[in-house]
Amino acid sequence: MKNQYSMDELVRVACRDNNNKRPFLYVNPLQGKHIPVAPEKPLCLFRYMADMIDEKYSEDRILLIAFAETATAVGNGIAYYSSSVQYCSQTTREKYAMAEYLNFTEDHSHATEQSLIINGYEQIIGNVDRILFVDDEVTTGNTIFHLIGEIKDRFSEFKGKFSIISILNSMTDERISQFEREYRIECLYVCRMPNNYGLDRIDEFNSLFEKNNLLNSRKSDSTTEYYTTHFFPEIETVNVSNYNFRFLQKRSALINDVDNYIEKVLSKVDFSEKVKNVLVLGTEEFMFLPLKIAEEIHSHFPEINVMFHATTRSPIRTSDINGYPLFSRCHAVSMYDSERITYVYNLIKYDYVMVITDAHISITCACERLKEVLRQTECDFFCLVCQE
User: Fold this and answer.
1) pLDDT tens per residue, range 130-159
2) Of 296, 300, 285, 294, whose CA–CA distance to 350 is shortest?
3) Tens digits of per-residue pLDDT, 59-72?
4) I need a labelling partner for 14 at 20 to 30 A (CA). Which of 26, 36, 220, 349 fits?
5) 196 Rama class: left (phi>0) / alpha (psi -120 to 50) / beta
6) pLDDT at site 213
7) H-state helical runs in 178-286
8) How many Å apart are CA 102 and CA 151, to the nearest integer?
9) CA dihedral sign of residues 89, 95, 99, 102
10) Spatial CA neighbour of 292 closest among 267, 269, 266, 314
11) Using an 8 Å Cβ cutoff, are 30 and 172 in contact?
12) What pLDDT is stored for residue 241 in this prediction?
């Protein structure tokens, strides 16, 4: 396939906050994680990656495993659009009753412990020709290699092959050769990125941070600026049936769940004529369903400007420095754990904000904190879509 994407479209460099193992990260303006984006842009990227899979592995029965948290929507999107994928799941950092886990580590992350829920794997692993790992960025392949070792140990009956598909790949030539020739793990990617790409910009940004004390220069961590000047209504809550894509699913079930979810949510929300700008915000590992909702809103209401992104665990420095991708950071309480801080980047004023989560909302402080965050930017309406 001819590459439709350039590095300039897919990569921005940013500075991690308090991570000495890897002080930088790559932010993708088309992925819909940290930076708000029109929903059709990430979905076009995911369709393109699905086409790559179908062209390469049209004869294979594929089990897809996406990596949390940033690649969950990528994996769900590929599974949704690829006819070669038969089963799909994703790694997670959440804990669920009755779940059986394979545990592994992601050494360079701010949250190193990850797990793969393997309920149902015993029943399907013998019917799979290939396990496909999906990530937004592969730098060394170590995390995937660790997980492959765990899968081989746990499911010795699996005799199929392994592959990786990522948006970016910055593995060295030697490492890719080792993966493909020695380990028989094929590496597919949208863009090959030079190892340590953009680190000169990171050094430049860090130098300016230290010189000018520009961290969060728009006072994005403040929570009181608009309290007395901006009215904010009560939260409108929409409850929908339980969907959890962290567990193994057939692709057909995924498609059915996504389509049913969209129908249920859109039947319960409406927009007044005053609404011109809408934000759909996912939460942490839960991204694809909110992204599809954003697409459908724009399809049904083409006169409305719709943007999508998600909360994240990743603490990243922000600044008004020219060329830096993240200008503001707001703290929120996780919908999944009241002791966890999450972040929303580049939040601006919207007429209507729809927060969509697969959490069962019992954490009152999370809802209250979101109200505070949205009040900061003078957003006019807040709709919360959560599990029943």
Assistant:
1) 999 999 999 999 999 999 999 999 999 999
2) 294
3) 999 999 999 999 99
4) 349
5) left
6) 58
7) 199-212, 251-266
8) 8
9) positive
10) 266
11) no
12) 65
Among residues 96, 147, 38, which one has the least CA distance to residue 285?
Answer: 96
Q: What single DSSP character describes residue 316? A: B
Q: Quick one: CA torsion of 269, 271, 277, 281, rounded to 10 degrees?
A: -10
DSSP 133-166: EEEEEESSSHHHHHHHHHHHHH-TT---EEEEEE
Contact 50, 132 (CB under 8 A): no
Residue 132 contacts residue 62 (beta carbons within 8 Å): yes
Nearest to 161 by CA among 73, 246, 57: 57
Question: Which helix (H) or strand (E) covers residue 115, if one does?
Answer: strand 113-117
Query: Residue 56, SS3?
Result: helix
Decide if 34 contacts 328 (C-beta within 8 A). no
Task: Give the CB-side neighbour count of residue 306, counting CA atoms within 13 A.
Answer: 22
* Residues 378, 345: Cα–Cα separation, whole Å: 15
Task: Determine the pLDDT at residue 93.
Answer: 93
The per-residue pLDDT for range 7-22, each reduced to its tens digit, is: 999 999 999 987 777 8
Provide the sign of the torsion angle of the four alpha carbons 147, 149, 151, 154, taken in this order: negative
Question: What single-letter amino acid sits at 381?
Answer: F
> Does position 314 have pLDDT exceeding 80, yes or no?
yes
Contacts of 286 (CB under 8 A, 6+ apart): 72, 245, 310, 356, 357, 358, 359
Distances (CA, A) of 213 to 162, 314, 360: 46, 21, 39
Q: What amino acid is encoded at 201 in this protein?
A: R
Model confidence over 33-87: pLDDT tens digits? 999 999 999 999 999 999 999 999 999 999 999 999 999 999 999 999 999 999 9
For 250, the token pair is 């057939």
**Token pair 């659009």: residue:** 81
